[in-house]
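[job 4417] fold queue: 2 targets
>>> target A
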Amino acid sequence: MGNCCSDVGGGMTAVGGTAASASASGDNQNDAVDAYLKSRGIHGLFSQIELSFSATNLRDRDVFSKSDPMVVVYIKEKDGAITEVFRTEVVLNSLNPTWITKYTITYHFEVVQTLLFHVFDVDTQFHNVEVKMLKLEEQQSLGEASCALSQILTKPNRSLTLDLVRREEPVTSHSQHSGKLTVHAEELFSSRTTAEMTLKCTDLESKDLFSKSDPFLVISKLVESGISIPVCKTEVLKNDLNPIWKPVFLNIQQIGAKDSPLVIECFNFNSNGKHDLIGKAQKSLADLEKLHSGGEGEHLFVPTLVGHDLHNKTLKSKLFVDKYSETVQHTFLDYLAAGFELNFMVAIDFTASNGNPRLPDSLHYIDPSGRPNAYQKAIYEVGEVLQFYDADQRFPAWGFGARPIDGPVSHCFNLNGSSNYCEVEGIRGIMMAYTSALFNVSLAGPTLFGHVINRAALIASQSLADDAPKYYVLLIITDGVVTDLQETKDALVKASDLPLSILIVGVGGADFKEMEILDADKGERLESSSGRVASRDIVQFVPFRDVQSGEISIVQSLLAELPTQFLTYMRSRDIKPSS
């Protein structure tokens, strides 16, 4: 039970796993909610997904019987490399098979996980051969299909039906009839249920010479080997022999099952890390619920050596469960299945510091060879991921810091040149509008973010008023430091109450150190000119850097935080996915 903190305050904070420092950071709501979510087993970044397969109207390749189909799953990497990862069993004599064997894959929100499915007819002579030993070149292809994992997960019932095609045949009406493959996804978890408990003790023994004990609880689960593994701690309460701790949260998934044995130990805090055991109890979560409903206490005990035998000495001290409740916490994928969307928006810096777009040294230079510039790379890396979470794929796109033809400098103009609407069709639409704008505006300045943030916030606000199941992600790409810092802070503080996250990507070689003040991860919580503090952190900033082939880019690592930001917003406002 040791700790590595150098002072008593730090030590107590380290021990207090639930909310030991809440009073010192009362305005730090986002951190509190993040911890709250994690304590309940909500992890938006990685989920285990189980894929199951069925098919209809497969081609019959056998002469005297029906086809004997098997599905082979491949993962297609970003560089185009294809790796086989899974095979189902063979279903005999079926053109409408449902396979039993399922494929488990880890879902990563921040990357596009492209899957390739190939259905084979396994020849009769190989029916006694293990599936993994089959040589695929000796089997007949019934067709193949591909999709992104996120395309399956964003379907309301998490099922996607794909047309099977055969590459080796010319595209004719006959070759089109290769059947259909349905892929269904289920999120794997032990339980969404979390127990919230308020625990207290009475008549604790004083372990300190000149003061009362400083008690805290440690809750551990017992594994088969008999070892106890800590899963939860309370804060330390100073000089208190009848402590009532702040609520603790236990996810059923953390402890195995509701009737799994738990050890609740009460320690007296010591700054040297050698905490004294005051007493312990062994109860399951179900037992603790009964203690609460019956209003009874459980006597603590301490192991005591009597001769050569270890006995449990019962103490006067008691453990009580003051409050007990269970809640169901929803995952990011639950919201997707209920129809929630992530809507992508983009704002591009057209200030003169980017350089003349017609010259190769400009950050806006469009290379005739097709090699993308930094702006195009950032748009693509974020857009290729988020596009699957937006049903209509119509994306608001703006520019700022330029002078449209025959007009004053604008700090928020529609990238498509329209004066009426800001949306474009798909990622390709953003790219085309961006290229067109480069030849229809004059680069100017200064670099102001406030206008585009307010515009995005207006869209998010209208959506919220309409009770639409949407969460917005604004990507701002810039080459320089913002010059309207306080106005930007005001806009961000105001937007922190909305279903909106903002990714700021710095391109070029500028020193972006001042920009990090907008990202609360790297500094203090934003405060507006009126003294109001942001309700949560909605900004992530990174300088764009090229990465080596096969690596996850820094932009995609930013995207990995979005599910948590999404859940933080939904949970803090008690927004639940409809069943």
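>>> target B
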Amino acid sequence: MSMFSTGILVLTSPLHTLPLRIAPVLSSAAQVVERTLYVHLHPGLNLGVGGGQPRPVFIPPVVDLSSLITGLYSNAANVCGHLDVRVLLTNVRAQPNNASSPETGGTGVACNPFPSPQPLSHSPEVVLTDFALQDPGQSPLVAQCLQRYTGYCYVCTPGLASVLLHPQLQKLEEEVEKEGQKDDWDSRSERMETYSEVVVGGTFDRLHGAHKTLLNISCLLANKRFLIGVCDQELLKKKVLKELIEPYALRVQRLHEFLQDVKPSLQYEIVPLSDPFGPSVIDAQLQCIVVSEETRRGGEAVNKKRLENGLPGLVLHEIQLLKDAHHTEMEEEKISSSSLRSRLLGTLLTDPENKSHLPLVPYVIGLTGSSGSGKSSIAQQLEAMGAVRIDSDQLGHETYQPGEVAYNRVLEEFGSDLINEDKTINRRALGRKVFGNKERLKALTDIVWPEIAVLVKERIQQAREEGKQVCVVDAAVLLEAGWTDIVHEVWVAVIPEEEAVSRITARDGVSQEDAVRRLQSQWPNTQQVEQANVVLCTLWEPEITQKQVRKAWDLLQKRIQQSREGAKPPS
């Protein structure tokens, strides 16, 4: 079967049976669509022969629909986590009070949710459905009917393909037939209370199923305006692996795209949050805040502030957390951005630059990180796996030895009073001369760093002559010194500053103030990660670091194999 980048799944099964069908239907859809899967809900839609060409209608927001959306995103995370699933709500709206109004055609249910086809961020190339065929011979006619229906609702790619999914649900269908086909929207379907203006807050990093559930249900609840506060700056400082959080502008862009797809009729307002409350405690128009069991206390704190400000409290609408079926022992049980960030450790975050001037053998990794980051322990693990370790700190010591080029230049620049009795340079005294003086420090590094680079290149050449396959250049100043042109990839070890300070004071016997000053003299983690191909973190137990390094090494071997196969001339 052909694969399509973007598809739209039209769900037609009765609302009360959909929760049981959704996992196999999504699993089948994942065999056809590989990137974005839109979901359009129209329970009870008849695509069969004899019913005429069906048209979309408005369906009311009911509690069962909210539960279905939660289950849909939960199942999607379990069975097709690689897909960007988006539940569309353009055709979901509370019924007008006047059942005989022209808008409803006198039926009590509004019947024109799509005056013109809705454009989506990604144009569907294929439409799929769970519609159950009574007669396989009807398949071409049903497919044609489905294509026309979808084209009436959404702007699709010309030549829209169609696929009728056939999950193995005969047993389920028999059970449904026994209890009878009840009306999806009868009196037993509890209507949701909706509100003119709704607010939520969050980090919204790497938009995942739990975020989408929160946003979709908020869109169900909102009739007019939806206010979204996005954590920025101060609120990110305590986040796990904050260096891997997407930039604010990118998070906002992805939020806006998702929301415009889901319910374009709403007025969206996305604002940065520099404190836990933002506009939720001063905006008099807001009526409802959507929370989870985890953030309910935050919602209660918002209401306390609102009352202090003379504003009415907000309705707290609580949604359930989504369980992460794939979480590891170091990850949260719920679907969370921090777990997704931890899974990025050891993987290739950005493709390496084309370094055609570098031979492919040995493949050279530049490993860097701030003081206390654990990069040297990572380098030792890579060495144990077969890499040649090149310790630039050790090579730096060599450049200060009598007879080396840097030796004479340092004495010329900083004075012969630095000479010890054994003719070596007193590096402590040298450090005092450059400490706190950027110009003098630059004068020193301009002398020493190029000489270290020469020694690094010599060690790489030696490894090449010995037939070694991988070298790891362990260098704290890799990025500052501009050595990225002598390595194929940059790997960065990160650690929270407070943990780094604790390690430095314990290891080197210096004060916390000295440790902080040392870290502040180096590139911050965020700046280093911006240039990283691979990121690692030694915050947790050694066994977890070892798993990261092993993953990074195994993926590296695959990349090396692919790059060498790509470099071979055609036979």
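[job 4417] complete. Note on B: The CA atoms of residues 6 and 122 lie 7 Å apart.
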